[in-house]
Amino acid sequence: MNKYELAVVVSAKIEDDERAATMERVKTIITKHGGTITNIDEWGKKRLAYEVRKMREAFYYFIQFEGASTVPAEIESRVRIVENVVRYLCVKQDEK
Predict the structure, then answer these.
(1) Running DSSP on this structure, what letter comes out for residue 28?
(2) Is the separation of the CB atoms in 95 and 2 below 8 Å?
(3) Rounded Cα distance, 63 and 91, in Å
(4) Does the reported pTM lie above 0.85?
(5) What CA–CA distance (Å, rounded) separates 43 from 46?
(6) What is the pLDDT of residues 48-93, one digit of tens each?
(7) How far is CA 22 from the centre of its chain?
(8) Going edge to edge, which strands form the sheet with 36-52?
(9) Those residues with Cβ within 8 angstroms of residue 77's Cβ, 6 or more apart along the chain or in another chain
(10) How confident is the model at residue 95, as a pLDDT?
């Protein structure tokens, strides 16, 4: 099992319950495709480096998970179409 981190940037224009539902959907995508979530780090509302979809702020989440080498590609293809996700990035963590 490899260790990965998924960074998810969620729109700040939505309500708290809708944002929570979006994160639940992302977590479900990870577990459904064979990933095991080990940690979720919520950074809260932060200013974006540049304007995206006419937004200057968004909510940042970092999800650490373990999975096979095919899991990140599956997750990215599913997270790409989640409506309130502004940006995402999945990277493999270094072995320590």
Answers:
(1) H
(2) no
(3) 11
(4) yes
(5) 8
(6) 999 998 999 999 999 999 999 999 999 999 999 999 999 999 999 9
(7) 9
(8) 36-52, 55-67, 2-11, 85-92
(9) none
(10) 74
